[in-house]
Design brief:
Number of domains: 3
Low-confidence stretches: 8-30, 159-169
CATH architecture of the largest domain: Sandwich
Number of strands: 20
Helix content: 10-25%
Largest sheet: 5 strands, mixed
CATH class of the largest domain: Mainly Beta
Strand order of the largest sheet: 5-13-12-7-10
Mean pLDDT: 84
CATH superfamily of the largest domain: Immunoglobulins
Distance between the termini: 121 Å
Number of helices: 3
Shape: elongated
């Protein structure tokens, strides 16, 4: 199928949801010489640029996606289904094919597609449109809330003659068309909780990593976070973090990096407090204590302050020299005492 004006109109009208290789969703019409556009089925709820479908238990559905090659060369693409997750920056994304298991996730969107159809290799001639079909099967058992996933369209790196070690591949790209399934008009209420808190090295900085969990089949959108870390003994503020425009996928977990002021962290007991607000008036006040051990503190400080290694090595060398000197001194003293004793014996 040749590209016509109708395709550009549908793309611009759709406001495609695309996902860059870094994982963050952005809005775009068509870039990197590729355009994608959904073909809305009859059960589409709103023509909002994604597949937003009202489904029934056990229903069979076929997602149809138009892919346009806007370049002058044939494009070889990989099309895969994915399940929505939350990356560690606190943004809902669709660019991971496999995800860690989550006990709270009732339905994994990727698994609604037959295994043979989850990954397709598509060749799109220059200046033409190819239709891709992804059959899905809704579970027979009714599910609560929403199921969110995506159809990921990315460049086939192996097909590129430039995909060699040490060579930058400028035409490497990935887009994801979002898919939302719901069976009821009743909306699930998200629930945000905290898990483990521990210090980690991010780049050359100390960060306090906090595990956040949304164990409900609902999206948290337009989320704002204000977090503060204090020393439980002194009350001193050790770090503050503010973030806006965050989004959390249904039934997902992410490991968020909070700021820590300075390049040293002492062993001790600390308190983490977060005030979080989101769309529709949702809000949470979350608190948790955590401890930093001597070993963990040493590792963090050594990484962020490499000169400490030289100081420690210098101290150890100095101690070694002192020990050797003491051993030699004692040995010489014993020999001197023996010589003195032999002299006394001869005089007697």
């Amino acid at each position: 199928m040749k590209i016509g004006k109708h395709f550009f109109g549908s793309v611009i009208g759709a406001g495609l949801v695309t996902v860059a290789l870094s994982g963050g969703p952005v809005s775009a019409a068509a870039t990197s010489n590729i355009g994608i556009s959904p073909v809305y089925p009859d059960n589409q709820i709103t023509a909002n640029g994604i597949f937003d479908l009202k489904v029934q238990p056990g229903q069979a559905e076929t997602l149809k996606l138009k892919i346009a090659n806007l370049s002058n060369e044939t494009q070889k693409l990989i099309v895969q289904t994915t399940t929505a997750y939350t990356n560690d920056a606190g943004t809902m994304a669709f660019d991971h094919v496999t995800l860690p298991k989550n006990k709270s996730r009732q339905v994994d969107f990727r698994r609604l597609v037959a295994k043979r159809d989850r990954k397709q290799v598509v060749t799109v001639p220059a200046g033409e449109i190819t239709m891709v079909e992804m059959p899905i099967k809704v579970p027979g058992k009714a599910f609560d809330g929403i199921v969110v996933g995506g159809v990921l369209v990315k460049s086939d790196d192996q097909a590129s003659p430039f995909a060699k070690k040490g060579v930058s591949v400028k035409n490497k790209f990935a887009y994801a068309m979002g898919v939302v399934l719901k069976e009821s008009d009743q909306t699930a209420v998200p629930k945000l909780t905290m898990g483990k808190i521990q210090p980690k090295i991010v780049g050359n900085d100390i960060k306090i990593k906090t595990v956040y969990k949304n164990n409900k089949p609902a999206i948290i959108s337009d989320m704002t976070l204000h977090a503060k870390i204090t020393n439980r003994q002194t009350g001193q503020v050790m770090g503050k973090t503010a973030d806006t425009g965050m989004s959390v996928a249904p039934n997902s977990t992410f490991n968020y990096a909070n700021n820590w002021h300075g390049h040293k962290i002492k062993p001790g007991s600390y308190h983490y407090h977060a005030t979080i607000t989101a769309a529709n008036g949702q809000h949470w006040q979350l608190d948790k204590n955590f401890k930093v051990g001597v070993a963990g503190s040493f590792v963090m400080n050594q990484h962020c302050n490499p000169w400490l290694s030289y100081v420690i090595i210098g101290i150890l060398v100095l101690l070694l020299i002192i020990m050797i000197a003491v051993i030699i001194y004692k040995r010489l003293k014993r020999e001197q005492e023996k010589r003195f004793a032999r002299q006394l014996t001869k005089e007697d």
